[in-house]
Amino acid sequence: MPDLDFSSVRVVEVSRTYGRRRALAKVSLEAPAGRVLGLFGPNGAGKSTLLNILATLLSPSTGQVHYGEYTSADAGDALRASIGVLGHDLFLYPDLTAAENLAFFGQLYGVRDINARVAEALSLARLTDRADDRAGGFSRGLRQRLALERALLHTPRLVLLDEPFTGLDDASAHILIGRLKTLAADGAIVIMATHDFDTAETLVDDAVCVDRGRVHPIPPGAGTLRERYRRVLQEIA
Amino acid sequence: MTPGFFRTAWIVARKDLVVEARSRELVYTTVFFAVAVVLIFSFSFVVDAKPLTDAAAGILWVALAFSGTLALGRTFERERQSETLKALLLAPVDRSALYLGKLIGMLAIMSMVVAVVVPLVVVLFRVSLDGVFWHLLALLVTGGLGFAGVGTLFGAMLNRSQSRDVLLPVVLYPLTVPVMIAGVSGTAALLTAEPNLPRAEVWLSMLVLFDAVFLTLALWVFDAVMAE
Questions:
Q1: pLDDT tens for residues A148-206?
Q2: Contact between A29 and A18 (Cβ < 8 Å)
Q3: 3-state secondary structure (DSSP) of residue A65
Q4: Is there a contact between B8 and A104 if contact means CB atoms under 8 Å apart?
């Protein structure tokens, strides 16, 4: 289990500016444990900024993020041990093998019984037979699978994913959906930014639209996720 | 349980050394560059088989500074390729330990440059290391530590800047002027017909002081400067 336990993430009136450009404007949302929250929106809408703030890589200009009863300022390293991030860039060293990449990050996160955990992660990524191959030689899909297991190696409470389906074939995407559903069922908080509505349809429990730095809920109801998202975009236009 | 400070630094340094052992890119390029610098200067400063007085010390340190800058830029470029520096910053470890790990990796590369360049300077500039070897080694270790210590901090800071290749030397050279002055002056005191060991020791103590100040400062501010 992670070092720091919390059962929800609450974003309260968070704004973030880069110089004079406002990336997020008074965003508030809550993501409870056991559910998958989807962030949808056009390019440059603020999804990655929000994920970076949740990951503690960025500080909000105003507002706060509460991880249960903690904030990033309170919890520090222990909080980072409870967060797993799969970025758009995959955070893998191309000159290290698949097993070495996992072992390196596993050591930094203090994962116990590291060899067994790495073997299990390779198996879940279906890369056991490529364990000693350099990650730089993998296709995007294989690297994506490896990067996902790297992000989940330390069993994080909060899982943040930026475009996790990029480069995955149908079979791999379905396996990833199953993996994320299992994580949520085991009590993880999963927050995912994606443009892949069809794949996300079967995965997300809650969805929000991020547009020009503001967050608008996509209510459940009639129609597909894509149709509901478009309705929200029309309403806020 | 996350690793302690020195264990974290070792994990990061070992990773850098494994990556370098695979590619050998930094060692080959920096050593080749340093050798080229020494050879080019030797054509100018060795006339009729007689080298100019004190030229060897300056050329040795210029070669180390230029090749060190090359290595610094490239080592952080590697961390940019897949945004792995971001992944390091996400890890639940003391960020100062990440700095120390990167610094150890840089020092290993610079040691290899020193191991090639010093014998080359000795041969081309006809200097003797009799009785001064340990003093020279101490100057190179402390000078290299000061240069790499400042360079590693700014290399990490400038990693996200688009003009990082230009900015790194622009920021690094003025800040390491004390290292260069102490290194060149101390080495010049050693590489003469009549070595002046006490004078070299004065410059050595200046380098130790510089290292103590800048390494403390770098370890202290690294977390803050990498925060955003």
A1: 999 999 999 999 999 898 878 888 888 889 889 999 999 999 999 999 998 888 899 99
A2: no
A3: strand
A4: no
Cα separation, A27 vs A213, in Å, equals 8
Contact assessment for residue A84 and residue A2, using Cβ atoms and an 8 Å cutoff: no
* Pairing state between β A158-162 and A83-86: parallel
* 8 Å CB contact between A147 and A125: no
Contact residues on chain A for B6, CB-CB shorter than 8 A: none
Distance from CA of B24 to the nearest CA of A (A): 11
Give the 3-state secondary structure of residue A10. Answer: strand
Closest CA to A57 of A24, A79, A39: A79
Complex ipTM, two decimals? 0.89
pLDDT at A205: 92
pLDDT (tens digit per residue) in B141-164: 999 999 999 999 999 888 878 788
pLDDT the model gives residue B1? 76
Q: What are the extents of the domains in chain B?
A: 5-225
The residues pairing with A21 across neighbouring beta strands, listed in sequence order, are A18
